[in-house]
Each structure stands twice: as C-alpha cells, then as structure tokens.
Amino acid sequence: MVTRFRLIILAVAFVLLAGATAVVWLTAGDPPRAAAFRGERTSAVYAPIATRVLDPEPLTVQEVFAASTVTSGRVTLARQGTEALTDCVEAVWGTAATEAVKGCNQVMRARYGTPDGKVSGQFTVFNLPDAAAADRLVAALEPAGGFVRLAADQPPDFDGTRSRAQARALGHYVTVGWVAPVGGKGNVDLTYHQVALDTVGRAVNQRVVDAG
Known about the structure:
Helix content: 25-40%
Radius of gyration: 20 Å
Order of helices and strands: HEHEEEHEEHEEEHH
Largest sheet: 7 strands, mixed
Number of strands: 9
Strand order of the largest sheet: 1-8-9-6-5-3-2
Distance between the termini: 77 Å
Strand content: 25-35%
C-alpha cells in the first residue's frame, strides 16, 4: 500500500513538473508584457469615429503628442521621444495580437519618463478600420494573446514584471498606456503615472468633438 501511495505521489509530481516545464517552454523568449492589464471596449460615445470612413484623416505625431509633459497629482511624465509606424505588426507580438492588427494602417508611439528616471512609460495609438477591429485588438492584448512591443529607446531595465497597462478602444482607435519602474526593487505605486499617461488619449476625444 505504501509503495502504491508513493507511486501515485511520484506520478502527480511528474505531471505537475511537466506542466510547469511546458508553461516555461511556451512563454520562454516572449517579449515583456504588463503584469497588470486592463482593457476597455469602445462605447456609443465614440460613434462619430466608429469607422475610418467617418474619420479618414490620418493621425499625426504633433496631434497626438502635442504636450511635452502630462501630469496627475504630483506625478509628471515628460515626453522623451516619438515615432510613427506604418507597419502595425512591428508594434505588437503574439499570434492573436498580430492577427488583430490586420487592417491597421498606422501606429503612433511615444516614450515618457519621470524627471528622476525611476519610472518610464509609453503611449501607443493604433488606427484600425472600425470599432469592431479595435475591440478585437483590445481582447487580443489580454494575457496569452500577445502584447504591444516596447519602443527601441525604452531603458533596458524597464521592469515589465512590475508594470501596468491600460488599453482602450475609442471608436476605430486603440490606445495603450504602459508604465513601469526602471531598475530597483520592491513595490512601486504606478496609479498616478498610469492616469497621467492616459491623458494623452484626449487627442482622440478631440476627434469626436470635431466630428460632432
């Protein structure tokens, strides 16, 4: 009986070990993703820009990233670099995310940081064909679906394991704000950093106002 019990324990341990190994193997080598993520689908508020047909003018870097700094409470993030991509696949990784950006025709991205260099972030905007496509991309950024890529000029010690991100579908656009501690250890409250970064999306809200 004891021998049989030991065999059962060994078998269970083997299965658990194999499962853990499979998870490591499947995720090994993946680029970083946010440790905490929140996604929001679009709403009726953005009906005036629900499709690219209704809102045909491409976004510009100057339009989206007009402000050199964004703030929330005592937190200030300074814009530190911007870029525009026409190949949206370059801005994401993962099968689901790559599939979801089909039909996307531009990506705007900017890097931000605190004056002390202890927190870094980036804000990315995808221009998709319609609201349904935008919702699909937000869904694809959920865990296991892939995620946005870090900008090439992000600090090498941008700590994705302690980062947080928020993705919003706003009509036919998707915005993704992502903030993280840079180096160091321990818990870092990124609440205000995330809120500050999210204000960059006001450029899309202005499109709704202009369409009205």
